[in-house]
Amino acid sequence: MAATAPRPLRQGDKVAIVCTARKASPEELAAAVATLQSWGLEVVLGESTAAAQHQFGGTDEVRARDLQRQLDDPSIRAILSARGGYGTTRIIDSIDFSRFAQDLKWVAGFSDITALNSHLLTLGHQSIHGVMPMLFHQEAGEESLESLRRALFGEEVTYTVPAHPLNRFGVATAELTGGNLSLLQTLTGTRSDCPTAGRILFLEDIDEYLYAIDRMMVHLDRTGKLQNLAGLLVGHFTNPQDNMIPYGQTPNEIIDHYAGKYGFPVAHGFPVGHEPQNMALVCGREARLVVNDKGAHLSYL
């Protein structure tokens, strides 16, 4: 059964910003609030944006309570996670999505928020993997912000990516799923573990050691996550780390080693992840991926 989508945002809609992971102050979010207001939206800063416990946006109880409140409030039409870091998996099992399921709204974020994106898709709901408010005017490029706006407002979004020497040609039509590689591995075997079979998977990560990227790809492969994919998008693997004895492969070469065991199309260099080009992808939405000698093209159906 296809994942269900919230209605597109409209001018005047109310959106909330919450911290499900690392802390972010209202002052740090001011520029993002101004941008969202320029899109015609009313912005609510959740309780967690004014809270802090060490690196977190408040205690687990504060962050969970804030997310639950925004999920249940019928006046809120989208929830944007302020930033990633770490912490979403600590609260996800305490959230009740039953009222949300009766009145869907957009949830958006990436990195640590992969846990929330994946969990929602296990429940059959679409969400957005995209730029978070903390990064609106620090790292995010204008293209990335515009792709998020278009996704939220239900406007057409298509992506064309230049050819890459490791691309594997083919065509796939399937729902999108994926996100941060280390989070996807962390979710394996939990209630937030989203099936990948028959779907187009996208991957990205930051600051990971090359051997760790290989180890995580081994884990995905051994747990059957790669075998029945419809397609694969390889995003940014930003600032990869290495040991004193070099690992000997780039992140793309590591991923190609495992993807090459199967016959699905693969598009490397896809603009998603921890870099200025972080284009919004709708998890759970059916898309068509075409990879050929000209490059790769992704469009929603």
Head-to-tail CA distance between termini: 15 Å
Number of domains: 2
- The CATH topology of the largest domain corresponds to Glucose Oxidase, domain 1
The residue ranges in which pLDDT falls below 50 over 5 or more consecutive positions are none
Report on the biggest sheet: 7 strands, mixed
Q: Please give the CATH architecture of the largest domain.
A: 3-Layer(bba) Sandwich
Helix content: 25-40%
Would you spell out the secondary-structure blueprint of this structure?
Elements: E1 14-18, H1 30-38, E2 42-45, H2 60-72, E3 76-81, H3 88-91, H4 98-102, E4 106-109, H5 114-122, E5 127-129, H6 142-152, E6 158-162, E7 170-180, H7 181-187, E8 200-206, H8 210-222, E9 231-238, H9 251-259, E10 266-268, E11 281-283, E12 286-292, E13 295-300
Parallel strand pairs: 1-2, 1-3, 3-4, 4-5, 7-8, 8-9, 9-10
Antiparallel strand pairs: 5-11, 6-13, 7-12, 12-13
Helix pairs in contact: 8-9
Structure notes:
- This protein folds into two domains: 14-152, Murein tetrapeptidase LD-carboxypeptidase, N-terminal domain (Rossmann fold), CATH 3.40.50.10740; 158-300, 3-Layer(bba) Sandwich (Glucose Oxidase, domain 1), CATH 3.50.30.
- The chain is globular, with a radius of gyration of 18 Å.
- The relative contact order is 0.16.
- The model has no long low-confidence stretch (mean pLDDT 97).
- The protein has a seven-stranded mixed sheet. A six-stranded mixed sheet has the order 2-1-3-4-5-11, with helices on both faces.
- The protein is of the alpha/beta class and 301 residues long.
- The protein has helices at residues 30-38, 60-72, 88-91, 98-102, 114-122, 142-152, 181-187, 210-222, 251-259, and strands at residues 14-18, 42-45, 76-81, 106-109, 127-129, 158-162, 170-180, 200-206, 231-238, 266-268, 281-283, 286-292, 295-300.
- The longest helix has 13 residues, at 60-72.
- The two termini are 15 Å apart.
- Helix 7 (181-187) links the parallel strand 7 (170-180) and strand 8 (200-206).
